[in-house]
Write a structure and sequence with these properties.
The chain is mainly alpha-helical. It contains 13 helices and eleven strands. Helix 3 runs parallel beside helix 5 and helix 9 runs antiparallel to helix 10. The chain is globular. The chain starts with 10 loop residues before the first helix and ends in a 26-residue tail after the last strand. The structure holds alpha-D-glucopyranose.
Length: about 425
């Protein structure tokens, strides 16, 4: 990657801007409080967005607000434990989002990467509020057990998603094959396929095994995030003296790690799979770095992965890491999740690099992320070559950059 020459803004200035957006995007409904990703483009509550928000709120010392964000997120949990990826808070009618017929009025009927345990642990580590931990634990316990059962009905220890949107990367080319779409496609074609899946889900009564007949991707980041969060769940359960739960979650994390090695790993890269019998989807997207976040590699293989791909081999654009490698047919500098840089994916990569003590690379990601914000503000995503801002404005995810300044989590586990 070419060196960035622009000046990187100070941490203080960054914090001030982030706080402004977080307060501007704050909403409430009755006693609940949550943050919308962007007032104009995304006026509801989203699952992994709220997790990112809570992380950001902790970093700007609004810890009580972080707790409120999480409590509103779990308030619409389904009986079976699923947490929907969107909560409309009765505002659906005012927006075009009502075109999606989820089969329920107030929420969607699919989920998103389960980042909750990571966030709850971070909050707890900040102020040791055991009451909060105790209150939210039953929700988390039900959620992770739902994921482990409903999304792995054939018990191969890999988690499946039933719709691309569950990955949080709605239009990513990782899902093209499973959707039956070519590498070059229009947003309308892609949307039509995803709408079809929503109606299949209604017919399936929102049940994973049935949905696996229509769409079943065992996605690398989703599994990686599940592993890491199961480990956090184990710590949370341990803190609450729930020894059996603590062991259970750790064992499950380990089983997924092994299954990922067995079914996804080839030539030192983890590939997502599609269909019930796992078929690898060999397409280079940012996901290839995500296993670092859950420490799936030993030190030597992590170094090999980074030496082969990070800032090179299609991931060598000037502004951070593109979501899709530039030498892929599907790469589209203006596409939605098909090339542009997103701060959240940079954040996962940053976290992973820190796990392995690769501080110089991590610093480069942090600088590239800050430089994007300095250049164009808090946009949804960015042109990886020019840094030009794209999509929603005053979009909250840029706030994750501040978490890259939080050195308290800095450690080198030297995992083998
Ligand atoms: C888009 C993104 C998704 C996000 C949502 C709200 O759908 O793809 O990841 O949760 O917007 O920001």
């Amino acid at each position: 990657m070419e060196e960035l020459t622009i000046h990187v803004m100070t941490e203080e200035k960054l914090k001030k801007e982030i706080k402004r957006i977080m307060l501007k995007n704050r909403q409430s409904s009755g006693t609940y409080q949550y943050t919308v990703p962007s007032l104009s483009s995304y006026p509801f509550q989203w699952l992994w967005d709220s997790c990112f928000h809570a992380i950001i709120l902790v970093n700007i010392h609004l810890v009580e607000d972080a707790k409120k964000e999480m409590l509103s997120l779990v308030s619409h949990q389904f009986k079976n434990g699923m947490i929907p990826h969107m909560i409309y808070w009765n505002k659906a009618k005012e927006h075009d989002f009502s075109v999606v017929k989820w089969g329920r009025k107030d929420t969607s009927t699919i989920t998103q990467p389960p980042m909750l345990a990571h966030v709850v642990w971070k909050i707890f580590k900040n102020d040791n509020d055991k009451e909060f931990l105790q209150n939210i634990y039953p929700n988390l316990n039900k959620l992770y057990r739902f994921i482990l059962s409903d999304r792995d009905p054939r018990k191969i220890n890999l988690i499946g998603i039933i719709d691309p949107d569950e990955s949080g990367e709605d239009n990513s080319p990782r899902f093209d094959k499973a959707l039956g779409l070519p590498p070059q496609q229009s947003q309308q074609e892609n949307f039509a396929k995803r709408l079809q899946l929503v109606s299949d889900n209604v017919k399936c009564h929102f049940e994973g095994r049935c949905m696996s007949n229509f769409f079943w991707v065992r996605d690398v980041p989703f599994n990686v995030i599940t592993i890491r969060n199961l480990e956090y769940m184990s710590s949370i359960a341990n803190e609450l003296h729930k020894k059996a739960d603590s062991e259970f979650f750790l064992t499950q994390a380990d089983l997924i790690k092994r299954a990922m090695k067995k079914y996804m790993l080839e030539d030192n890269v983890y590939w997502s799979t599609y269909k019930i019998e796992p078929n690898k989807i060999k397409l280079k997207t940012w996901h290839i770095f995500s296993p670092l976040y859950a420490r799936l590699y030993n030190q030597e293989d992590a170094k090999r992965l980074v030496d082969t791909y990070l800032f090179r081999g299609g991931f060598d654009t000037k502004y951070g890491i593109p979501t899709v490698a530039t030498d892929e047919k599907s790469y589209d500098v203006n596409g939605f999740w098909r090339g542009p840089t997103w701060i959240a994916t940079n954040w996962f990569i940053y976290k992973g690099l820190m796990e392995y003590g690769m501080y110089d690379y991590a610093q480069k990601i942090k600088d590239a992320s800050t430089a994007l914000i300095e250049k164009c503000g808090f946009r949804e995503h960015f042109n990886p070559d020019t840094g030009e801002g794209q999509g929603a404005k005053d979009f909250t995810w840029g706030g994750l950059t501040i978490d890259m300044y939080d050195e308290s989590e800095r450690r080198f586990s030297g995992f083998k």
